[in-house]
Write a structure and sequence with these properties.
Component of the large ribosomal subunit. May bind IPO9 with low affinity. Interacts with RBM3. This protein has twelve helices and six strands. By secondary structure, the chain is of the alpha/beta class. The chain has a domain of 136 residues: Ribosomal protein L4/L1 (Ribosomal Protein L4, Chain: A). The protein is elongated, with a radius of gyration of 36 Å.
Length: 239
């Protein structure tokens, strides 16, 4: 089993949670959130007490998140390849991820809806928040779960109370638009003028390696063939 540093895992979870609040990233993953009122989507704590699936369906339709479930229904299909013979016959797309604080029946209410993933905020799984290593999962939070994030991961100024000496990762740059920064007049004023003159250097080639370079050099003098010595029969005078 591959062991990963704890700080690294926490950093990955924080990155996945931050990406779930950006509509562009969530839509790029294929989630249908065009009519969703806001991201991150936070609902009241009474949702944790739902015990019936019809209550969960009614909530998703009220939040305009049912289109994402329709996408899951439409994507149900048979797996291509030999996985069909290995108990993995049917596949489907991912739907919303419901993150709760306490289970007062919420798991029973949502578990039968296809594509839904249920996570406890104290036991967040990076493989569920970023399936396939791609961030941007559509997350629906309960209010108490959303408030607990500061206790779990802290803020930029205050350390986490439920973890030992851990703060939220801080941005290295306030403005990440690097190309705009480099083209700004303040930076351009401080740079030296570009050098227009081009100095072309002659490439010295090794004559012993390249055939073309060897042809330009003075060829070695041709060796004359050695004179053939006469045999004993040739030395004998003719009778």
């Amino acid at each position: 089993m591959l062991s990963v540093n704890t700080t690294q895992k926490r950093y990955a979870i924080c990155s996945a949670l931050a990406a779930s609040a950006l509509p562009a990233l969530v839509m790029s993953k294929g989630h249908r959130i065009e009519e969703v009122p806001e991201l991150p989507l936070v609902v009241e704590d009474k949702v944790e007490g739902y015990k019936k699936t019809k209550e969960a369906v009614l909530l998703l339709k009220k939040l305009k998140a049912w289109n994402d479930i329709k996408k899951v229904y439409a994507s149900q299909r048979m797996r291509a390849g030999k996985g069909k013979m290995r108990n993995r016959r049917r596949i489907q797309r991912r739907g919303p991820c419901i993150i709760y604080n306490e289970d007062n029946g919420i798991i029973k209410a949502f578990r039968n809806i296809p594509g839904i993933t249920l996570l406890n905020v104290s036991k967040l799984n990076i493989l569920k928040l970023a399936p396939g290593g791609h961030v941007g999962r559509f997350c629906i939070w309960t209010e108490s779960a959303f408030r607990k994030l500061d206790e779990l991961y802290g803020t930029w100024r205050k350390a986490a109370s439920l973890k030992s000496n851990y703060n939220l990762p801080m941005h290295k740059m306030i403005n990440t638009d690097l190309s705009r920064i480099l083209k700004s007049p303040e930076i351009q004023r401080a740079l030296r003028a570009p050098r227009k003159k081009i100095h072309r250097r002659v490439l010295k080639k090794k004559p012993l390696v390249g055939k073309k370079a060897a042809a330009t050099k003075k060829p070695a003098p041709e060796k004359k063939p050695a004179e053939k010595k006469p045999t004993t029969e040739e030395k004998k005078p003719a009778a």
